[in-house]
Design brief:
215 residues; two-stranded antiparallel sheet; globular; 4-stranded parallel beta sheet; WbqC family protein; 7 helices; WbqC; alpha/beta
């Protein structure tokens, strides 16, 4: 950690690496003035299903122009993705140790409709933080923060679902934990925070803290 401030993109049921930043940094800024990027954690998460890693993606309303700000991205309900996501989560984690304990906390995100992706992700994040029993200092950016700004440790593009596009993060080191289908497919790294919570429950925060490397 070079700075006390970090920059993150918004994220849908963000990965474990992302939540380590929420634990690690005194000040967290979530970028809302960027041009929206597709095929990122902004509208997707990865869970661990019976056949391996299963991506869940939120469809968004197609922009009328080539570029749209993240803060203006709207969720599409042309398909019943909420039902599909809910069934996918159930199939993936119904046999996990803490599924029954936590699943009701997430049901509203798959029954109620949100119009704005940024607000939807924020509601999810607030719920997760409540379950982890932490209150980090998080705020949205007031304007676009240029890349290379020395005041921030910038993870907006480093935390990415595609290994070929993700950057090096020396402050994150993940140890193995027991996963539902680990015996079948092996340990899967940096999945959605859902995977951690359903498998480790109250020990999730301690796991996040242990995954942070102080440089």
């Amino acid at each position: 950690m070079k700075n006390t401030k970090t920059l993150l993109a918004t994220s849908f049921f963000a990965p474990i690496q992302y939540y380590c930043k929420l634990v690690q940094y005194p000040e967290i800024f979530i970028e809302q003035w960027e041009n929206y990027s597709k095929q990122t954690y902004r509208n997707r998460c990865n869970i661990y299903g019976a056949n391996g890693v299963l991506p869940l993606s939120i469809p968004v309303v197609k922009a009328t122009s080539k570029k749209i700000l993240t803060k203006d991205v709207r969720i599409s309900y042309d398909t019943n993705w909420q039902k599909l996501h809910w069934k996918g989560i159930e199939a993936a984690y119904k046999s996990s140790p803490f599924y029954e304990y936590y699943i009701d906390d997430f049901e509203r995100f798959f029954t109620k409709k949100w119009d704005n992706l940024l607000e939807f992700n924020k509601e999810i994040q607030d719920e997760i933080l409540g379950l982890l029993e932490i209150e980090p200092n998080i705020q949205f950016t007031d304007d676009f923060i240029e890349f290379g700004n020395s005041e921030y440790d910038d993870y907006r593009n480093i935390i990415h679902p595609k290994t070929s596009k993700s950057g090096i993060d020396r402050t994150f080191n993940q140890e193995k934990y027991t996963q539902v289908f680990g015996d079948k497919h092996g340990f899967q790294e940096n999945l959605s925070i859902l995977d951690l919570i359903f498998n480790l429950g109250p020990d999730s925060l301690s796991y996040l803290e242990s995954s942070i490397v102080d440089l």
